[in-house]
Amino acid sequence: MTTARARSFTDVLLSVENISLSFGGVKALTNISFDIRKGEIRAIIGPNGAGKSSMLNCINGFYHPQEGAITYKGQRRSRMRPHAAAEQGIARTFQNIALFRGMSTLDNIMTGRNLRMRTGLFWQALRLGPADREEIEHRKVVERIIDFLEIQHIRKVPVGQLPYGLQKRVELGRALAAEPELLLLDEPMAGMNLEEKQDMCRFVLDVNDEFGTTICLIEHDMGVVMDISDRVVVLDYGKKIGDGAPDEVKRDQAVIDAYLGVSH
Amino acid sequence: MLYREAGQFKASYQADQAIFPVAQDRLVMLALLVIAFLVVPFVTSEYVYRAVLIPTVILSLAAIGLNVLMGYCGQVSLGSGAFMGVGAYAAYNLAVRLPFLNPFVCILLSGFVAAAVGIVFGIPSLRIKGFYLACATLAAQFFGDWAFLRIKWVTNYTPSGSVNAPPLQLFGWDLSSPTANYLVALGITLALALAVKNIVRGHIGRQWMAIRDMDIAAEIIGVRPLYAKLSAFAVSSFLIGVAGAMWAFLYLGSWEPAAFDINRSFSLMFMVIIGGLGSILGSALGAIFIVLLPIFLNQALPPLGAAVGWQISTATVSHFESMIFGALIVFFLVVEPHGLARLWSIGKEKLRLWPFPH
Amino acid sequence: MGFFLEVLIGGLLAGVLYSLVALGFVLIFKASGVFNFAQGAMVLTAGLALVRALDVFEQWHWPFGLALLSAFAFAAVIMAIIAWMVERLVLRKLVNQEDIILFMATIGITFFLEGLAQTLFGADVYPLNVGLPKDPIFLLESLFDGGILVNELDIWAAVAAGLLVAGLALFFQRTRIGRALRAVADDHAAAQSVGIPLNQIWFIVWLVAGLVALVAGAVWGSKLGVQFSLSLLALKALPVLILGGFTSVPGAIIGGLIIGAGEKLAEVFLGPSMGGGIEIWFAYVVALLFLLFRPQGLFGERIIERV
User: Fold this and answer.
1) Which domain holds residue C199?
2) Structural domain contains residue C199
3) What pLDDT shows up at residue A1?
């Protein structure tokens, strides 16, 4: 196993300050702060139920934390709808695949471009001139993503019929189509076999290298996390118990306890 | 052996995105158009126009409208009958109050009125889903029933509550013959069907389908539920409204509010389910089916009953009709939720391989 | 004042009858997550079976009590057959489908039942007499001039509804089957995995809803005569459900009272200035406004969405 890549980043893209989130008395997140820097791969790890997905849901505006603030690109924001987060360049994939099952791979990824498509109903109905040009232009971008993810052969297949691993890949494609600045990946490798995991790691690293996309991912496979991430946040029972480079985190006593299940 | 796409390569994205990418489909479509526009008018009797062709064509458009909402955007509506009524009464009022407008202009404008009303009744869809929304659309239906009957302004204070369409003419031509009605309805329906097909395969259609398949994920990738849902309501109501205005002007001639009651809503919903959710072609197939079945039953059941010594009244026939519709709805939902349209494409797939088994 | 009270009480009593129909909806929704549009058609079917069987037995000169009981038994058997067929032919095939597909399937069932019931039992208006008194009575004559006119039948209907609700509440809370029903409502797959027989539960709950429909059919039939319009009661019950919440038995009752009273008062006091007949949509508009502010209804549970 290789050690973590030694890279350093300085510009803060997104920072989370003292966030707390609860559902009718059940605390999902307690007083959490961390930041994501431009260009890095940031991992969030922790045992099941630690609040990792809730954290991502807060970042992209699906949940609204009761306390604390999120600052993105220097702007503090309060209650924001998910589509507003998308408009600001935050895209994500889901733990339980959330593709549009009735649509083809191509249409799913094209949907990721919808924020950049502007022609109105009238031109769409005629599908002449601007509407047609726009469709072709975005189709070209999408075809590049399809090539990148090596899914040409399933272009026109309804995604509901695809095997799990490919669905995960299509979902990544849909998020990439938005050309996000910040990409949130919720367990992108869960349930995959070794080969599929290697492919997915390669895609994640390539996205980060080639497009300079900042990535925040949740992952359970420690080997993967240690290999590809620059910095790691560790959550347990909704609290932050560790934050730092993979090597430091790995040696941290609190983190080891959480994973080995020392009683609280 | 005739239906082969081998050797037809697509060299551009335009060609790949065409509505009928296979050459044989284009030929069949062209042949159908020629028959519909050039052959039918010379061979059809007035009865067939009135009983079959005109209703089928107009209801196809209404079914396409409902399919936009239900099949593409996933919002169930039980109020489509009322929206046909909105179109019909809007066209009537435009014709009565602005007599200088041509009736056909009124028909098209009525679509915009219906779209506006559709947006108002679509607002609840931003908060509620599924059958809650179905209940909300029922409110539109009942409110419509009441308004057409009780708000006398709508019927221009006609004492009987029944209103008449203005005489149809365009550039001095009389267009009130069944043949003319049929050709006009067919032209409008085909033009709008093409427009809808274009919308649903573009980015607005993809937003609708994204909302249908998984609304949360759609919002997270940047689809605004407000725009997507209300635009679906608007487009759907526009089409249903135009269909309603044509139903009134080209088919009924004079009508009462009962023409647009809840039974109309249900029959449109049946067309969409039997024809196929999320299919333009399916909407038309569903309309054909729903128009033809009662005619068929009325012809076939009484002699059949007489053969076994059972006197079958028209009431009984309508009960049978109700049973058969009910059973078919369940059958299609259980066996083939994509309806006749899916059966059609399975048939085409078989034809592509024929005569080889695989 | 006397007139206002009379309208109010008339509305409340009509509301009880809406509640009876809404109860059937709630039962099925609670136990199977299915929004059963066919509840109205079930009321029609049960009512027709009851009144036609009663006619036949009376023609055979059976004593009234025996004829009535047999007719109820006959209608109950019909409802059981329907429940069995629905489970076999529809629900079993649509397990794990989206709710809205099941909803549309019940619309199919509605049309099928309407056609079937009228083919089998006839399509006229049949007066029904199950021995409930129908005389109008006057209450509080000492307080108001002329008192308040109330139909005795409506009071019996209210009593019947109250008994049904009490019985159903006990059934859901106290019996093993009741608990299983609630488990199934929460999660089909999970309930199955702990050994609750899904198909049997569905049959039972549709049967119970069928029997509730029978009671509703008997009461409404005595009031209006058994006729096709009973099927449209389903449409009256929907706003009640929205108001009360789809999963709440008390909600169905209170929602029914609010809608019943509200629409009568609106019709009498607002209607004349609006051209009359606002009863049809008033309930829906109330329910709709309510939905916008409290989508889960008065007693429904709030749902937290996850991804």
Assistant:
1) 2-230
2) yes
3) 40
